[in-house]
Amino acid sequence: MAAEISFSVETARGSRTLSVTYERRGTGEPLLLLHGIGHHWQAWEPVMGILAADRDVIAVDLPGFGASPALPDGVPYDLATVSTVLGAFCRALGVERPHVAGNSLGGLLALELGRGKLVRSVTALSPAGFWSEAERRYAFTTLRAMRVGARSLPLPVIERLSRSTVGRTALVSTIYARPGRRSPEAAVAETRALRGATGFHETLAAGGGVLFRDDIRDVPVTIGWGTKDRLLLRRQGVRAKYVIPRARLVRLPGCGHVPMSDDPAMVARVLLDGSA
């Protein structure tokens, strides 16, 4: 069952106390899992059981997403601040330099933690921050449309749609190549997470000018990209490899933007290899 922890973080406006929700399973070296914008820790549920056999797996709801409250007033959702929050979260759990894996926004945050040498290894699945301006505008427009759609549909309609493969395709096919593999319960839960994400607009605003341009030299990096990613096109993975030449670039055949449910066994293998 997910837990909540509170801790203090130093910000430009002084010390602030905040809380985040997380799920922790398994034993072994710690592996921190970071979801994408508008999602929640349950995005990792399809691979959690496999990972927990070999890792101390910690999947967190980022501030303002899932069950985690928004950041305090005046505290920005930029990379530096959220990375500081994640560092404080790990210290509060007694975890020192975990491996980290992230998807989309979470992938960008994972790379930022790697750049700061705060983690043992980084695995980034379709990370944000390697887009052209046109690609960024397309992604942000798509995300805003998804948010409007999630907020405009009454909950009974969402639940009814979730009961069929066609309905689940309508709800979540933008981010999954195989939306039929999502359970009705998962499709409803993640649609509700998107509509209730208090940090959504602030995170998009903070990401408008973000480009990841720094090599990561002393931390192993794996970058995975789904061949059917419709949100962040896979050519962005080639740019990521150019920025981080030592990174291992892995093709994820048949996977969409959020690949964990499209092919759990393959994605889990990539995460375990990346955190070896």
UniProtKB/TrEMBL annotation:
Keywords carried by this UniProt record: Hydrolase
Superkingdom as given in the UniProt entry: Bacteria
One of the record's GO molecular function terms: hydrolase activity
SUPFAM superfamilies: alpha/beta-Hydrolases (SSF53474)
Domain AB hydrolase-1: 31-269
PANTHER family listed in its UniProt record: ALPHA/BETA-HYDROLASES SUPERFAMILY PROTEIN, LIPASE-RELATED
Listed name of the protein: Alpha/beta fold hydrolase
Species of origin: Streptomyces kurssanovii
